[in-house]
Design brief:
Structural class: alpha/beta
Number of helices: 13
Helix content: 40-55%
Shape: globular
CATH superfamily of the largest domain: Glycosidases
CATH topology of the largest domain: TIM Barrel
CATH class of the largest domain: Alpha Beta
Radius of gyration: 23 Å
Oligomer: single chain
Number of domains: 2
Strand order of the largest sheet: 1-2-3-4-5-6-9-10
Distance between the termini: 57 Å
Order of helices and strands: HHEHHEHHEHEHEEEEHEHHEHH
Largest sheet: 8 strands, parallel, barrel
Length: about 350
C-alpha cells in the first residue's frame, strides 16, 4: 500500500508542477470546498428545523380561477374542503379600485370570512406587483398617469387594505409586493427601491403587529442585503418549465432540495431572518407561451402529472423550510372539474389530509 501511495505522490507532484495543471487543481479544490460548505449549511439548517411543524398552504386568485373557466367561489370552497389551513390571497389594485375613487372589498371580505370559519390562516399580498400575470395589476384608468400621480393613489389603496384586514384574527402576515425586482417577467416598468421602502414602511407603521414578508426575485444564489429589511423572506421554486430561448423543450432545474435549505440557512446565519417557500410550482407550464386552456391534457402532463405533483410536495418538505405555499390550487380543480381528471386533486387531498 505504501509503495502505491509513494508512486501516486510522486506522479501528482510531477503533474501539478505545470501551471495549467495547478490552476485546474486549485479550481476544483475551491469548487469542492464551496460545495461542501453549502451542503454543510443546508444540513445544519434542515436539522435545526426538524422539530418544527410543517404548514402546507396554497395561493388562491379568483381572477385566475375565472380565467380557467371556473367559478371562483366554488373553487375556493373546494380548496377549503381539502383541509388547507393557510392561503396566500391577493389585493389587486385593478380589482378593488376598478372605478377610480370607489373601493370594492366584497370578494376579499368573503375570502377572509370563509377562511376564518374554516380556521385557515391568511397571508395577504399588497402593492402594485402581486402574483399572476401581468404581475403589475394597475387599473386601466391609471395606466397613462405619471408615477407622481399614481403612486399616491396606490399608497391610499394600500392604507385602506391594511386598515381593513389588520384586525382579522386569521391574518398572519402581509407580503409587500411580489418578486419586486424581477424585470424579465410581467408588464411592470417601475423597479425603484424607494417605492418598495415607502410601501414597507407604510404597512409597518399601520400595523406593527403582523410580520411583513418580502419575496426574493428569483431562486438563484444571493442574500437580500438591501433595504427594506423584511421580517421574513419568501422564495419561489420552479422545477420544470418550457425553455423558449435555446433548447425549445422542457427544462428541469437541477437544484437539489438541500440547495434551498442552504439559501434559507445562510440567510438565517447572516440576517437572522426566517425564509418560507412562497411559490412552489405545482401546475403545468405549457410550451411556446400557450395558455393552459388551449393546451392538451397530454401536453400538460409533460410538465406536471400526478407523480410529479407528489414529488413536488416531497421536494418542498425536503428543503427544510416549514412554511410551504403551493402554486396551482386553481389548476388542480380545473383538471378535475373541466378536464375530468382528478389525479392532481387526489394527490393534493392526500397531502393536505
Amino acid at each position: 500500500m505504501n509503495k502505491y501511495l509513494s508512486k501516486f505522490k510522486a506522479s501528482f507532484s510531477k503533474w501539478i508542477k505545470k501551471p495549467f495543471h495547478k490552476a485546474i487543481f486549485i479550481f476544483f479544490f475551491i469548487l469542492l470546498t464551496l460545495f461542501t460548505s453549502m451542503y454543510g449549511v443546508a444540513q445544519w439548517y434542515i436539522y435545526s428545523q426538524n422539530n418544527k411543524p410543517t404548514t402546507l398552504g396554497v395561493s388562491f386568485i379568483p381572477d385566475y380561477a375565472k380565467y380557467l373557466g371556473l367559478d371562483p367561489k366554488e373553487t375556493y370552497q373546494a380548496l377549503l374542503g381539502l383541509n388547507i389551513k393557510e392561503f396566500r390571497l391577493t389585493s389587486y389594485w385593478s380589482d378593488i379600485e376598478n372605478t377610480k375613487g370607489t373601493y370594492d372589498f366584497s370578494t376579499l371580505d368573503w375570502e377572509f370570512n370563509l377562511a376564518k370559519q374554516a380556521n385557515a390562516k391568511i397571508i395577504l399580498t399588497v402593492g402594485l406587483r402581486q402574483p399572476r400575470w401581468p404581475e403589475c395589476h394597475i387599473p386601466s384608468w391609471a395606466t397613462n398617469e405619471d408615477k407622481s400621480v399614481w403612486q399616491p393613489q396606490l399608497m391610499n389603496l394600500i392604507t385602506s387594505v391594511v386598515n381593513r384586514y389588520k384586525d382579522y384574527s386569521n391574518l398572519v402576515s402581509f407580503q409587500v409586493e411580489n418578486e419586486y425586482f424581477l424585470k424579465g417577467f410581467g408588464t411592470c416598468t417601475d423597479f425603484s427601491r424607494d417605492r418598495l421602502v415607502q410601501e414597507y414602511n407604510l404597512v409597518k407603521s399601520l400595523d406593527p403587529n403582523h410580520s411583513i414578508i418580502l419575496a426574493r426575485s428569483n431562486n438563484a444564489l444571493g442574500i437580500p442585503i438591501g433595504q427594506p429589511k423584511g421580517d421574513e423572506y419568501s422564495i419561489s421554486i420552479y422545477k420544470r418549465v418550457w425553455d423558449k430561448t435555446i433548447t425549445h423543450r422542457y427544462f428541469e432545474y437541477p437544484f437539489p432540495a438541500w440547495f434551498y435549505g442552504f439559501l434559507a440557512g445562510i440567510q438565517e446565519i447572516f440576517l437572522g431572518k426566517n425564509m418560507i417557500v412562497g411559490e412552489l410550482q405545482a401546475e403545468a407550464w405549457p410550451p411556446n407561451g400557450q395558455s393552459i386552456p388551449e393546451t392538451s391534457l397530454a401536453e400538460q402532463n409533460k410538465s406536471l402529472d400526478a407523480s410529479r405533483l407528489k414529488d413536488r410536495f416531497n421536494y418542498g418538505k425536503a428543503t427544510g423550510m416549514k412554511n410551504i405555499i403551493l402554486w396551482g390550487g386553481e389548476y388542480w380543480y380545473y383538471r378535475e372539474k373541466i378536464l375530468n381528471d382528478p389525479s392532481l386533486w387526489n394527490v393534493a387531498k392526500e397531502e393536505y389530509k
